[in-house]
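Need residues for this backbone.
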């Protein structure tokens, strides 16, 4: 998660980011309600703007926006977060994500084929999700209590769940890769952002082990 509050204003202002991160305290409950309402409206309006961007922004402008997608890990994480935000939001309302994803892919592939190849194409898109329970977040919290190591993704899930505060621990040991395989691309950046979010010091002991000091 990108916790930099000082970036130029996007959907959120720097003050909005500070509020969401708990770095800006609004004294009155009505002020907090107003801030949440303002953020909701901005996000809603920004999503509506994408319809306009898709159809009117020039190819050159779009290409410049995505120019560093292969090298800018924070930007790539942001793209994933956009999809994740949409996935969770539609799921919470009982709408299958494929009702959003499949038409978008079909129309995009059709438009790109017409433009780059001068052809009409039939587009087949499949989307399937299968989840298998691995462990409970209560189990992750219990391991933190005993000082046992957890993975960065487990810690992140615990943070997102919201009822446990990992910052209460003096140190958190993380298993950061598979023995014999080591860390994977993007692991280092993920650890750094996790440490930044917790305002913790990060010590990387090996390819498979790191320690956070909140």
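Answer:
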């Amino acid at each position: 998660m990108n916790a930099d509050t000082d970036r130029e204003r996007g959907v959120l202002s720097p003050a909005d980011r500070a509020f969401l991160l708990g770095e800006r305290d609004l004294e009155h409950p009505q002020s907090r309600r107003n801030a949440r309402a303002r953020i909701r409206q901005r996000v809603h309006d920004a999503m509506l703007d994408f319809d306009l961007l898709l159809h009117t922004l020039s190819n050159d402008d779009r290409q410049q926006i995505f120019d560093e997608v292969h090298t800018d890990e924070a930007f790539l994480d942001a793209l994933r977060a956009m999809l994740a935000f949409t996935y969770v939001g539609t799921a919470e309302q009982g709408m299958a994500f494929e009702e959003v994803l499949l038409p978008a892919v079909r129309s995009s592939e059709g438009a790109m084929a017409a433009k780059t190849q001068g052809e009409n194409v039939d587009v087949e898109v499949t989307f399937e999700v299968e989840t298998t329970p691995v462990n409970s977040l209560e189990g992750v919290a219990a391991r933190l209590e005993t000082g046992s190591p957890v993975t960065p993704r487990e810690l992140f899930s615990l943070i997102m769940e919201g009822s446990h505060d990992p910052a209460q621990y003096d140190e958190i040991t993380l298993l950061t890769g598979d023995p014999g395989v080591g860390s994977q691309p993007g692991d280092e950046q993920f650890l750094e952002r996790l440490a930044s979010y917790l305002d913790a010091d990060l010590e990387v002991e090996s390819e498979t082990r790191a320690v956070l000091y909140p």
